[in-house]
Amino acid sequence: MWSEYGLPLLLYALLTVALTWPGVLDFSGRLISDGGDARNNLWMIWHVKEALLGRQPLFDVSLLYYPVGVNLLTRGLGPVVGLFALPFWPLGPEAAHNGSLLIGFWLTGAFMYLLGRALGFARWVAFFAGLMMLAAPIHLAGVFGHMTKTFLGLLPLALLTLHHVLDRRRSPWWALAAAVVMFLLLFHNGYQFLFAALALAFFTLARLSMARGEERRAVLRRGALTVVVVLALVGPVTLLFLQATQDPQVPVDANLESFAFHPDIVQLFLPPRFSLLWGRQTGHFLSEYEIEPNVETNIYLSWIGLFLAGVAFFKGSRRARPWLLFAVLCILLALGPSLKWLGERTFTEYDLSILMPYALLTA
Fold it and tell me: Could you please report the per-residue DSSP string of 54-91?
């Protein structure tokens, strides 16, 4: 048990401290994050505590935008991170915020490790997968103020439950586990909920396409069961979310923001600007093309990760192909509604934009 779970969890805890350094040095004195987003996140964490104590309604808040009020179902950050903060409130609000951030950070690596082990990888390979998840620039960028990004652990957890539910040797009750994870994702971050839904659909179809005979029928039955159970648990809540978005006094359509802040394709291959080793060089290069990177556009794919993906492509088994295809689809979606190359959005003498899949998805 120690080598299987204890040691990896301890190492992820140490990595969490290292990657967020020097946050723990003043754990209860200042926020690890910075800027207005961090204080906004702290308010959400406080509000969850107040709601659990019966002092505030969890979602309908009348004192914000008074006298109209606002429904927190339309907010980017949900109440899940507030649950992580509960043990730290005796140390003060800063500790509650920092504790929640660190717990979410740590669980991201831990859940990725569990997914790797469920897929049959050796312990050190699964541990490395969790390390790659922890050190992903979009994950590290969340430390600057976006707690939705510091906790990504529910995404690999959703895939883990799907992997088990599609295995006919395991109990069909795993479908309920998948539904619970999707329920939590809905109350953590709407974007991640959609990412997980796309992933579950993709890998179910991939598994179905590779199965034969009775195995295919089993996958079809388990997949249908998962859809039914997820819809039964998440469907009614989703209707509440949709109803909250219809309030004309609180506009929530943010699609056009994705056009203003979508990344340049070169950012897939350049280390982020906050990189200690290469950040300055990246900043100089991007500034020459008037590209302003921000916390939303840290989509850099590590060169080690790209190399390993190449190895999987040429030497991997059939099991590697769906993951590689899904990675390509995610990369295409990450590029936003239209292609941006070295600061240019339109191409040829006709000034044409190149439409990307994200535009069709959000439309």
Answer: TSS-SSEESSTTTTT-EEGGGSSS-THHHHHHGGGGGG
